[in-house]
Amino acid sequence: MSELPQGWAWSTLQTACAVVRGITFPATAKEPKPTDANVCCLRTSNIQQQINWKDVYYVNRSYVKREDQLVQPGDVLMSMANSYELVGKVAKVLHVPSPTAFGAFLSAVRPTQAVNGDYLFHFLRTDQVQSELREGSSQTTNIANISVGRLSSIAMPLAPAAEQTRIANQLNTLLARVQACNDRFDAIPALLKRFRQTVLTAAASGDLTRDWRESKPPAAGAAAKEVKHRLDARRNRHAAKSKSKFKEPVQADLTHWRLDVPESWSVESVSAFAECLDHVRVPVTKDRRATAERLYPYFGANGQVDMVDDFLFDDELVMVTEDETFYGRVKPIAYRFSGRCWVNNHAHVLLAGDRVRADYLCFSLMHYDVQPWLTGTTGRAKLTQGALNALPLAVPPQAEMVEIVRRVNFMFALADRIEARCTGARAQAQRLTPLVLAKAFRGELVAQDPADEPAGALLARITTERTSPTQRVKAAAPPRRRTPVAH
User: Fold this and answer.
1) 254, 278, 314, 472: most buried by Cβ count inside 10 Å?
2) Considering only CA atoms, which of 82, 9, 96, 94 is closest in space to residue 43?
């Protein structure tokens, strides 16, 4: 054991605290609502940063064999059986809204006069204690178990009572600030996601380049003329290839279209803006991918899923999710790739012509609400090739499209830089808690006061108080005598 500051003493958890096992009961004993005959019962899922009182069940009071098996304010509840990453997790009980027990997968570590409750709670959170408990746990399939004996034998550096209070107060203040910082960092990804979606919405509606149009007003109908010109070029290109048949674009399905666009823009179908290459895509079996040389990316519904040894495409492509099961997930429903690749039949493949047009098409489709255009039953619906080709698309003139892509890329790059910095700062902030805790229990967080009563004297007094009353009662009790029976 390491050397402790003057006035400190080593103790075990069971010497300084009471360790109480949770109650046992059959699964059939769980009741959904409180009654006069039952008590609330906490389980491992209730052990969060604080006790979660929202998702609880109840059991009959008869399963509580002793009063100390009821939760008390100040208890530290520990998860004794959980995944390896979560076993040993603790939460301090701040209040008890109704009589409450705790199940066998939990234990209560209850402070005595020897230890400050917050001091105890923070000690059990230290990396040293958490690592010691996990490494000493028994392992079953996906579950780690900490025995009460193992928990009770944990060595605890005990500061003088007055210093415990100073340490606990300082930790409460510092760690509250660290947690507030982490909470802010946790909120940033959602804010950046919302920022990116807002940028894309503004880009697809023309709001993003409103100032640009005012400084360089394009002619009305400019975009429609450019779309027609590009379609003619596509027809001619196919005509020049004897085995290539041109497929005329379909009309945009405007049934669910609600977007107003600038006068110089045009609302066109996806098939008028880009060519669908779904007929080229081919799935590759998992066995074949396993033996591939892994030269080219293999794409599926939401992005790259593997590598293969050949390619189907070599161009500026936009892939769009086909299956409904992928909609509503974190990832967008459209993504970009430039160069050689292979695509399976879970993603539509669109060829828009050049990098700018492909970027603009992808930006327009990434968060497109395609639900009204899906066909099939719930859980099996798909965005068919026909529905994709008929999706309405707001198309700006080429010059404005270039500016839109430039601005979106600039703003996305800015968001990426912010996200990277926040990720680094968050990682540093997460290291603060274990560093501060370690410093506290080495006696380096607050100053020692020679006037404080040493922890050793405190432990000796607690030990005496635990044993002396019983001994005094035994000594004072008179010998039992049998009362004579009168005849």
Assistant:
1) 278
2) 82
